[in-house]
Amino acid sequence: MESARKQAQERLAAMGLPQRRDEYWKYTRPDLLTTDDVAPAAILNLDEAPLFDAIDRLKIVFVDGVFDADASDDLSMAGIEIALLQDAPDWADALYGTLEAAGQTPVARPLAALNSANAREGVVIRATGKAAKPVSMIYVRKSEASDVMLHHVIRVEEGADLTILENGPAAARFNSVMEVDIADKGAFHHVRAMGRDHERRAATHIFGRLGHESKFKSFTMTVNGKLTRNEVVLELTGDNAIAHIAGAAMGDGDFLHDDTVFITHDSLNCESRQVFKKVLRNGATGVFQGKILVKPGAQKTDGYQMSQSLLLDDEAQFFGKPELEIYADDVMCSHGSTTGAIDDEAMYYLRSRGVPKVDAQDMLVLAFMADAIDEIEDEAIADDIRTRLEGWLARHRG
Amino acid sequence: MLKINNLHVKLEDEDKQILKGVDLEVGPGQVHAIMGPNGSGKSTLSYVLSGRDGYEVTEGTATLDGEDLLDLDPEERAAKGLFLAFQYPVEIPGVGNMTFLRTAVNAQRKARGEEELSAGEFLKLIRAKAKTLKIDADMLKRPVNVGFSGGEKKRNEILQMAMLEPKMCILDETDSGLDVDAMKLVSEGVNALRDGKRSFLVITHYQRLLDHIKPDVVHIMANGRIIKSGGPDLALEVEHNGYADILAEVA
Description:
Chain A has 398 residues and is α/β, with parallel strands linked by helices.
């Protein structure tokens, strides 16, 4: 792993830290993620039950970025092998940094290289069968000014099935990388909720490689946070693979959420789907940069990309940059990006039936989010997410 | 029940007067019909009564059981018992029909200080009412009006009316886009709600709806005013001769 770290350090030195002038950092200020000094972020006392509380899961707890054995469950479960990054077995040692390195072209992702070079904590998980329950990573904050890096390495073996949950604010400044290697017919499900702490900053990367007939599904909920930059970089290398990435973000005030996605189709008959929804008000900003690259020969590709934002007032703003680059002639790719306000007609209709204005607005906001939430396969987990969004709306009325 | 007095309404954003002194009184249990040529202000009247944005009342009053309607929000008017069946019911993707109706029913009950219906009570009620309108379980689960045919949308409006049990129902061209069978079904739904107390204001272009929903009074509206009122025969007269004679008569 040390040589992988050294190589990552070299990659980083070659590309340098992200700058405002970089093409993919036009809308999001990178300095908050790169400065030497880490500004503190107030810790929010949560007024709601812990997320995923009712879900039967294996809990792995990190406090300020350090594994907490006492708070975590026993790291063993039928169908999977779990170890800490510092105890990584050979397969993980060999995989560490490789998907990140592959994901550095054609677009550089310096913060991910920074992570590979420096992260000392994380978990490595190898699924060999159907995991009995989700593995739930919980990121607790206790320090006001923590600067945390986590690096997880995941391998889903042939025909195996794994669900990863992630939630919690993690740190004042959080940098995480998850490398996910999915073998043929493997299935990987991922649902995460970024923490609600208002001043926290986060840059996350997921690098995925998908084999034949494999499946990758990831959903992220973001409510609050000063800055969140979530990058997902996937390479569909086996025929008939399926990748779905969805996100629901809601921000009020000093909030910027950036979804940056790069999907490479390099095989036959693969499907990729991106569904990102953002609800913004009071100066909150949303960013979407999504690209689908269809390589020569990747025929019968079915690519879909949808990014929509709902601006609840005149101060909110959204920047969208959808990109398609296609080098095969028998593909179906569609993309759409919309920005708009609450539909007055729908509002009037609901109110004319007696639904009070605030409730009508909440109903329409949740309806707007529905397509993204529908990407979560597990109903109980989806319900949990929906309840969180309802809770946020209830706190942000008027 | 509904009393409209000298109502003048203009568009909020432009200097265009649409209603120019409407007088109308619908008594308890009565069915009134309003007919009139395109652009006479019929739909505007229904929108203004239900509280849609974009209109400005410059003169006159509208009351329901003596209470001023025009100062209330749409949801308050609904809770007081006013219901508008839309000419073009709005599609709301992502909101389940059943969820929508339950929220509406309970919001109104809450506003009136009544106890809310439990999920079980609501389900029992809606199933019974949906059945008589030939609305199947699938339609109840689907998002509000999304993918509904014209007839299904209108039946859905009547289902909402049946569930909300308003005092005063306004039907804005409920017959538009309906075939003969659908019109019969919708009319039966409306007639089932007639109980001697509930009142109806039926806006329509065609006399044929009034064969099914028999009015007590028929009004002819033109150029923002009610220019003539009479019995059901007045609708037949329009059907045979058009509006030209009546317009000439009052001019």
